[in-house]
């Protein structure tokens, strides 16, 4: 009996540790959303914010929310999961995963709604590629669901389809910011604090996933929740690129002393028009504490004409 009691106590401690890690990643990943919300409200403008990114984020978190809710609450889907992973007593979705995905969806929707209220440029609209991607996702979802009554697929297959969509969205949504930093040869305005929060969340998320697999004694559970693993790895990879850009490749541009200097540098590069530069004085007064013009690029805007 002694070994059994010892094992139970060890698992209990590990469960507590898993909860601590899980809610920690929820906090550090969730907090990264709020600078953009506050900035939009303070400026009463969303000019320079990538509309494509907002739609990608909303779609991705919607898919991730359905995935987590279904695997955590739905008994039928949990039973289907157990039949495919008989060595795993439970799947590795935790309550903090459910709360994080729902919170991400709500905040993404709120930011998108801000674009309907605050000022934006005429060019700020969803691209044909992003719109096509959203519609193809909806059509694909309808096709998968339509085959379920006829035995062509199970609800778990639909849940995995949604997780695949979230993985693709996570992979492509950061690309515009990487490209924008490369074109400008600068990370000015791309929040390094956001990156630090993001990479911390990715590390903690993966750590919880592997710890839960160890607790369950079944590493196939990692495959069953591959979306959580994928999101963490994608965040770490892209954030590493951003850190290299910020501290190594383009570090010489970090110390531009004012918004005017940054704006005029962009005029010289041809990234904004000369007419826009005439608005420097009004922008300098609207953006306090010397915040960079490109602070609105927290989420990877692809807009190079960045009137505020």
What does this entry look like structurally?
- By secondary structure, this protein is mostly helical.
- 72% of the residues lie in helices and 0% in strands.
- The protein is built from 14 helices and no strands.
- The chain has helices at 2-31, 34-43, 51-73, 75-84, 95-117, 128-147, 155-173, 175-184, 192-216, 220-224, 226-249, 259-269, 274-277, 280-286.
- Helix 1 runs parallel beside helix 5, helix 3 (51-73) runs antiparallel to helix 5 and helix 9 (192-216) runs antiparallel to helix 11.
- The protein is globular.
- The protein starts with a helix and ends in a 22-residue tail after the last helix.
- The model is unreliable at 1-10 and 280-308 (pLDDT under 50).
Keyphrases for this structure?
308 residues; 14 helices; mainly alpha; disordered N terminus
**How many individual β-strands?**
0
Helical coverage, percent range: over 70%
Radius of gyration: 22 Å
Helical/strand content category: mainly alpha
Distance between the termini: 69 Å
Global shape: globular
What fraction strand? under 5%
Q: Could you list the spans in which at least 5 consecutive residues all have pLDDT below 50?
A: 1-10, 280-308
Q: Secondary-structure element order, as H and E? A: HHHHHHHHHHHHHH
Largest sheet: none
Integer average pLDDT: 75
Topology:
Elements (H helix, E strand, L loop, with lengths): L1 H30 L2 H10 L7 H23 L1 H10 L10 H23 L10 H20 L7 H19 L1 H10 L7 H25 L3 H5 L1 H24 L9 H11 L4 H4 L2 H7 L22
